[in-house]
Amino acid sequence: MTSLDTIQEVWEALRMHIDLSERKEAAETLVSYLMENNYEASEIKEEFRGDKDIAKALLFLDDHNLHDEEEDDYDDYDYDDDRY
């Protein structure tokens, strides 16, 4: 059993005790935490297959992270640099 297996089992046990209005945010927090700790989206998707909350969180965070990376490229550009 891998640590991701254990995390999935804990999520499954606790998910039903999380208020429906807060479940989306809880899933996003879990997915974000897993990704920050070097789990790939494909690994998370495979382990949590069938869980709609996790699937939606993966989609949301994937779109959000792509948008953040594009913004970071612009943030690195020095508009006052006279070389360009």
Account of the 3D structure:
The chain starts with a helix and ends in a 9-residue tail after the last helix. The chain is 73% helix and 0% strand. The longest helix has 24 residues. The chain has one domain. It is mostly helical. The relative contact order is 0.12.
Brief characterization of the structure:
Helix content is 73%, strand content 0%. The protein is built from 4 helices and no strands.
DSSP strand content: under 5%
Q: Which class do the helix and strand fractions yield?
A: mainly alpha
Unreliable runs: 70-74
Number of strands: 0
**Biggest pleated-sheet summary:** none
* Mean pLDDT score: 84
Shape: globular
The structural domain count equals 1
The helix content is over 70%
What's the quaternary structure here?
A: single chain
Please report the distance between the alpha carbons of the first and last residues: 54 Å
Q: Please give the count of helices.
A: 4
List the helices and strands in order. HHHH
Rg is: 17 Å
